[in-house]
Specification:
By secondary structure, the protein is mainly alpha-helical. Helix content is 66%, strand content 3%. A three-stranded mixed beta sheet has the order 1-3-2, sandwiched between helices.
Length: 486
């Protein structure tokens, strides 16, 4: 009973963040809704939300199993931005992340940050269903629901939100540790959170389905996805985590269906990118059991052309994961010949060539592409340069790349490798420092930069650059200190 109670408290507070329910109620054509509380303007400014979002993203990178796959990250961010473009009241940039987790869920927090569990690719049947979860989360952010929850918490127990949010993020990586911290933090304020959450969820449901429709997706995807979860839970010993945090009564599911039925019917085909992302995520980053099954690939092979190509790609992914590079190449080579600019095929062929100890072939293949506007191919080429022992070429490419993509941990890691291969110890330390900073390890990053500064001539431009960056990270430390109280 004690364990059930703890789970209940955890689930109640998560409800302010998680997208899993995505439950529409009424088919209003506009986003005009009654004010259910406060706009949170008295609690947090947008700049404060951005700072807090930055802090918690760094904590997630350090502790949670985020998927740093350039292809998958590019896909979910393009899909997310398509939805954001059709949302109202957007006050912050949006960033979308994938986390390797077999529990079906998603959540959003300060600063336009949305995190999806990889298992969503397993349970969604089409792109509209995946978009329905994301649209609901985007609505939590645009309505500033977390800021509202924080204001409610401050009325009852000032600063409990600091530890509570930190514990929720910790629970994504270490559920037992996160739950223990969370139940201690919330103390006696749970009932207020539960009541407040119901209003938040209703508002996000209504707005989310409108965003989904305006972005050109099928509004029926919301109730269809929920119906699928409800059907699964009837025959499972443990219902999906979404339904633990968001109970799904029949009346609410009926509201979702009624709302979608009042919208204009539309037939939407899932993109090839959706199917490719699905098999890649499940084949390369499944948490626990193997999720890219032969049954799934067989089903895809019986579908339309996009699904058939994804099935072939999925077979190649299976071979790649098993290090059977020759068999993977037999599948991908004809696919790439038919679609020479397909980034999914180019990416896996790069990995195949490197696996076969033929990195120069990967370099030749990628140099023939127009990579200037494609960050995925730029990283692939940089990696191929490193593997083919051309570190100087990798560095030149990565200096430009990290200037425009400073939050890409993959790029900083590659730059550190390339610098080390050239014996450029100070530049290696500088690149390592940026990776540490992205993971919230600011003290270690400052130490690395201090070492880099000590290795270059006194008064040089390099030393000035390293010292200036140290000052920036110290200022960041100072800003973040208030969020470390939890």
């Amino acid at each position: 009973m004690l364990k059930r109670l703890k789970k209940s408290l955890f689930a109640s507070f998560l409800a302010t963040l998680l997208a899993g329910n995505a439950l529409p109620t009424h088919a209003d054509v506009a986003d005009s809704l009654p004010d259910i509380g406060t706009t949170a303007g008295g609690t947090l400014s947008i700049n404060q939300e951005l700072q807090m979002g930055d802090f918690y993203v760094r904590q997630l990178r350090a502790s949670a199993p985020l998927i740093n796959d350039p292809l998958l990250n590019d896909y979910i961010n393009q899909l997310g931005q398509r939805l954001v473009a059709h949302a109202n009241s957007v006050r912050t940039p949006f960033h979308f992340y994938l986390i390797s987790n077999d529990e079906i869920n998603a959540f959003a927090f300060f600063g336009g940050n949305v995190v999806l569990h990889s298992s969503l690719f397993r349970v969604t049947d089409n792109e509209s269903q995946l978009a329905s979860v994301m649209a609901h989360e985007i609505s939590h952010v645009t309505q500033r629901h977390l800021a509202r929850a924080m204001e409610e918490q401050q009325r009852n127990a000032p600063l409990t939100w600091v530890g509570a949010l930190g514990s929720i993020l910790l629970a994504m990586a270490s559920p037992q540790a996160g739950m223990a911290a969370l139940t201690g933090t919330l103390a006696g304020s749970q009932q207020g959170v539960i009541t407040f959450t119901q209003g938040n969820e209703q508002e996000a449901d209504r707005i989310g389905i409108q965003v989904l429709q305006r972005a050109g997706f099928d509004p029926q995807a919301m109730p269809n996805f929920l119906q699928k979860l409800a059907d699964q839970s009837r025959f499972a010993s443990k219902p999906p985590e979404i339904l633990l945090t968001h109970p799904l009564p029949d009346s609410r599911l009926a509201d979702a269906r009624n709302r979608a039925n009042q919208m204009r019917p539309v037939v939407v085909q899932s993109s090839q990118d959706y199917y490719m992302a699905k098999v890649r995520a499940l084949g390369m980053y499944a948490a626990g059991r193997n999720q890219l099954t032969d049954e799934m690939l067989n089903d895809l092979s019986k579908g339309n052309t996009r699904e058939q190509q994804a099935a072939q790609y999925g077979r190649a992914v299976q071979f790649l994961q098993a290090k059977s590079f020759d068999n993977a190449k037999k599948i991908i080579a004809p696919l790439l010949a038919a679609q020479p600019n397909n980034v999914w095929y180019l990416d896996i062929m790069t990995d195949i060539d490197i696996g076969l100890h033929q990195p120069q072939q990967a370099v030749t293949l990628l140099k023939a592409q127009k990579i200037a506007d494609n960050p995925v191919l730029q990283l692939n080429l940089a990696n191929a340069y490193v593997e083919s022992q051309q570190p100087a070429a990798a560095s030149r490419l990565l200096y430009r790349y990290t200037w425009s993509h400073p939050d890409d941990a993959n790029a900083w890691d590659l730059l550190a490798q390339a610098s080390a291969a050239q014996g450029l110890r100070d530049e290696e330390l500088s690149a390592r420092a940026e990776g540490l900073a992205l993971n919230g390890q600011l003290a270690q990053a400052i130490t690395a930069l201090s070492s880099a500064s000590a290795q270059v001539p006194l008064g040089s431009l390099k030393q000035a650059r390293y010292d200036a960056r140290i000052d920036q990270l110290r200022q960041l430390q100072q800003r973040f200190r208030q969020y470390q109280k939890g």
